[in-house]
Design brief:
309 residues; alpha/beta; five-stranded mixed β-sheet
């Protein structure tokens, strides 16, 4: 009988739901949800990755089931991996992504002839391209220095670059060194949207975990709203930054509510799809994208419709 009880209690191992995110503060509520125990009864594991390039590679080869990306990164990923779906819009960059220059660079046009460091990602290329457009310059007018995100602070400090395409939490450190923000995402508002994308093949196989993932996300946002100082202490540990500095970095982004998610992902509000079309066109003109992606077909609202906010 004892053996029968043991057999009856046995559950087959669950394939983990591995979600890759980078250091962007707008993704930190996933980490907060995990630390607060919102995922403890699930197979969800939030994994830190150095960049979205590695996240997309992990999803492509099956090491990750989902990850955080921007709208332009999702377009580029979908071009060669169409089996991807957007199930959550996390936040909107409102100044958190920038081109920052050395103290002597006062305007964006001053980067002409200068060394500009940029991460080898879709967002890095997109921000640089949009900045150059605003300044009336082309990529031939600058020297592009390819840098991984963890190298940004030291490269700026050691004068290896004159300007950088970067984002928080490094941004605050560069400002403290005297850096001047020459261009930021608030000047192209609505174009830098962050989202959670997953492999299409897990929508059914991991549906319960995906529901819990999204539920935990919105619970973490509620905790952040009610207990900002405590939440910041937890989230700031991830990148070893000061909690107050982390809270300040959140002022440069706008988290999207469940209601906004429902409207945008179900396309009752066409704003997101229209923004994606604009981004796609710009990216094709700059040869960052080589075909027209039907972004609307990538949107799946099933996991955000369970919330009322």
């Amino acid at each position: 009988m004892g053996l029968g009880i043991l057999v009856g209690c046995f559950k087959p191992p669950t394939t983990p739901l591995l979600i890759g995110i980078n250091s962007w503060p707008g993704f930190a509520p996933f980490y907060l949800a995990e630390e607060l125990g919102y995922y403890q009864n699930s197979a969800i594991d939030i994994v830190d990755y150095p960049s979205t390039t590695e996240v997309s590679r992990g999803m492509r080869n099956g090491n990750l089931q989902g990850g955080g990306m921007t709208i332009d990164e999702t377009l580029m990923f979908a071009e060669t991996f169409p089996e991807v779906r957007v199930i959550l819009l996390t936040d909107l960059s409102n100044g958190g992504d920038v081109i920052i220059g050395k103290p002597e660079l006062k305007t964006l046009s001053d980067i002409k002839g200068k060394r500009v460091g940029v991460e080898n990602t879709a967002l890095g290329a997109y921000m640089l391209s949009r900045g150059l457009d605003k300044a009336g310059l082309s990529v031939q007018d600058i020297t592009v220095i390819s840098l991984r995100y963890p190298e940004h602070e030291s490269a700026f400090q050691q004068d290896e670059v004159d300007a950088l395409v970067t984002f928080e939490p490094v941004l605050s450190q560069l400002i403290a060194m005297g850096g001047n923000i020459l261009f930021d995402s608030s000047q192209i508002l609505g174009e830098v949207v962050y989202m959670l994308v997953v492999r299409q093949d897990i929508l059914e196989t991991h549906s319960q975990d995906l529901e819990q993932l999204i539920k935990g996300w919105f619970m973490a946002l509620e905790y952040l709203k009610k207990e900002p100082e405590n939440a910041a202490k937890i989230m700031a540990k991830r990148d070893a930054v000061n909690p107050q500095d982390f809270l300040d970095s959140l002022k440069l982004i706008s988290f999207l509510t469940s209601t906004e998610n429902q409207k945008l992902l179900s396309q009752t509000d066409p704003t997101l799809v229209n923004s994606a079309k604009k981004s796609s066109q710009l990216m094709q003109e700059k040869q960052l994208l080589h075909s027209n992606i039907d972004f609307a077909s990538l949107l799946d609202a099933r996991f955000v419709t369970q919330f009322n906010q």
